[in-house]
Amino acid sequence: DLHSFPTRRSSDLNLYSKLRLPLEAKVVGEDCIVGCCENVSREKIEELTNKGVKIIKAGKNKVDLRKFMAELAKLEIDSVLLEGGATLAASMFKEQLVDEIRLYMAPMIFGNGKSFLEGELDIDDVSDAIRIEGMKVEKINEDVVLSGNVKRNNA
Questions:
Q1: What is the H or E stretch that residue 46 is in?
Q2: Cα 97 to Cα 66: distance, rounded to the nearest angstrom
Q3: Which of 10, 58, 129, 131 could bridge 68 with an S-S bond, Cβ 3.0-4.6 Å?
Q4: C-alpha span between 40 and 19 (Å, rounded)
Q5: Nearest-CA neighbor of 90 among 130, 37, 57?
């Protein structure tokens, strides 16, 4: 899921390529925006729009992240907090849609040991690595936050 914290308004942003968002989900309502593929069921779109959800169709077989973000910009949403899995995070980096990174670490370990980024970034050499500038460390209660700005390799 993507959750937005824009300058002007706050919305719940969600990506569901096949639009499998349950109608009873807590996020469903007027402040919910969903990105999905172009070939989803008209019936499902109608059910969600009747509940106030804004649907953004972007991409044929999977959500086209560039197109989705461009549509968000038209809605004056210019900042999102990515709370997705490792595959979505890798895709956002690959598409160069990440400007700032904030990694939250809690004092607990659980799960299956997945990587922070899962997927093909096509970075095989350290000289091509995505660089983070202006790194800061902040403690919030028991959590630690690492933050910095993403430096484009071609910048």
A1: helix 42-50
A2: 8
A3: 58
A4: 7
A5: 130
**What six digits make up the tokens of 78?**
């210019």
28 token code pair: 């469903």
CA distance 87 to 73: 23
**pLDDT tens across the length of the chain (155 residues):** 344 433 444 567 888 888 888 899 888 888 889 999 999 999 999 999 999 999 999 999 889 999 999 999 999 888 887 777 788 888 888 889 999 998 888 999 887 776 777 777 888 888 888 999 999 999 999 999 999 999 976 65
| Pair type for strands 12-15 and 32-36 | parallel
- 13: which strand partners? 2, 33
